[in-house]
Design a protein that fits this description.
The protein is mainly α. Helix 1 packs across helix 2. About 65% of the residues lie in helices and about 0% in strands. It starts with a helix and ends with a helix.
């Protein structure tokens, strides 16, 4: 929890700095924003419930991908007073009142002048009104009622409409219902429909017969497993809204990197987000960087394609430096990456450093991490420390792999066997 809180703070810090805050002002805002950071953590937990149940930590990329879209939504709604919203959560100041009180802004006589790219326009306000009970009949539009019955909340619908106002005008029978029924037919659980529509409401504006189904057929020809469509769409519903040219270009790049047709299909199925990465600005430079470390790029792409969504300067190079400074060679680093590509998706400050510090207190040699770099993927507090303490009290050694990767039952069975063997000597 502590590591994820720091990671959420890092995401929030970077986001508000991009809005023009200096390092010092951003730091002051973060220090005043404990309630908002806790709110971000609650969103993480609701999105990734299953990960927490098995003691696996979220990667930097997963945390960023979960929080940034939400922060973008808040920026679109509150614009220049986003920092005030963050600092005063859960009681954000009203948008108009704050603008009127801000001495930095010129005097405004005409309220229409308040409209800006970051403040909801008349069009957005009218769209938002459709999810409020303000019609003459006192009833919500039929498509809004339908979505509520699917499990979407009014607040979630408002978030969608703030980002994509046209959604509030989609007809139930002509657009929304056919797409929802199509997704259900593919095997998407009803409980996941709200999440998919929240992530990509534009899906309901695309023709099933002319766009969605042909795009899916095209992707199946490229190797996407048709039996996994429900999972693919849930992971990245925007996949079905990309042009065929963009899809083909990414696939051509994967072939260029040496992936087989089968591997390409598996990558697109497990990590459809890779389609969203720029080939020349992201994928190719990242491939070149890993090649400089003598890493097998095709193997890394196959095992951990999400690694290619990270920043070379902010994420990859600092991790390489971390291991080199601790006595590992470039060959060792390449071996660790090849064995556990996800290694580079973890936070240096909140994951690798504290786990390295604890590793130094254990009885294992440094070479054990080359053999089992997956160590960094386990929770320090929920898995590593408790397991090591049990093993230490039992007085018998286990390989690092055995200590962490075995189920609770198998872990205790193995300890018991080793203790019995030790006692019989």
């Amino acid at each position: 929890m502590a590591a994820e809180k720091e990671e959420a703070k890092a995401v929030l810090t970077l986001f508000i700095k991009k809005q023009g805050l200096s390092n010092a002002n951003a730091a002051r805002t973060i220090n005043k924003s404990d309630a908002f950071v806790d709110h971000l953590l609650s969103r993480l937990h609701s999105i990734h419930k299953s990960r927490y149940l098995v003691g696996r930590e979220l990667t930097t990329l997963e945390i960023r991908d979960a929080l940034n879209p939400y922060l973008e939504t808040l920026l679109e709604e509150y614009g220049p007073i986003l920092v005030d919203v963050v600092e005063n959560y859960p009681d954000p100041p009203p948008v108009k009142e704050k603008l009127d009180e801000d001495p930095k802004l010129p005097a405004i006589e005409n309220s229409d002048a308040l409209a800006s790219p970051s403040i909801p326009t008349d069009k957005k306000l009218k769209a938002l009104a459709r999810v409020s009970d303000i019609s003459p009949t006192g009833k919500l539009p039929s498509h809004i009622v339908y979505l509520l019955e699917l499990g979407m909340t009014l607040e979630a619908l408002r978030d969608v409409i703030r980002k994509f106002p046209a959604f509030s005008y989609y007809s139930l029978d002509g657009k929304i219902k056919p797409v929802v029924e199509f997704l259900l037919h593919l095997g998407v659980p009803k409980s996941e429909i709200p999440t998919i529509l929240t992530k990509r409401p534009q899906l309901c504006g695309i023709s099933l017969t002319e766009n969605l189904i042909p795009t899916m057929a095209f992707l199946e020809d490229l190797g996407v497993d048709k039996k996994q469509w429900a999972k693919v769409i849930y992971r990245f519903p925007a996949l079905l809204t990309y042009s065929r040219q963009k899809l083909q270009a990414t696939v051509d790049f994967l072939y260029e990197m040496g992936l087989s047709a089968e591997s390409v299909g598996k990558v697109l199925t497990r990590c459809p987000h890779i389609i969203s990465y720029s080939i020349e600005d992201k994928l190719r430079p990242t491939a070149d960087y890993f090649r400089s470390l003598n890493v097998d790029v095709s193997l890394l792409l196959h095992r951990s394609p999400q690694t290619f969504g990270l920043s070379i300067e902010a994420n990859l190079k600092p991790l390489t430096k971390f291991f080199l400074e601790r006595g590992y060679s470039l060959e060792d680093v390449a071996t660790m990456i090849s064995r556990y590509g996800t290694l580079y998706t973890f936070s240096l400050a909140d994951n690798l450093m504290p786990k390295w510090e604890f590793f130094q207190t254990m009885v294992y040699p440094k070479t054990e991490l080359i053999k089992f770099p997956q160590y960094f993927g386990y929770s320090l507090e929920a898995r590593i420390k408790p397991r090591y303490e049990i093993m230490r009290k039992c007085g018998v050694p286990l390989l690092l792999n055995q200590m962490l990767s075995l189920s609770d039952d198998d872990f205790h069975i193995l300890l018991k066997k080793k203790m019995e063997r030790k006692a019989s000597r």
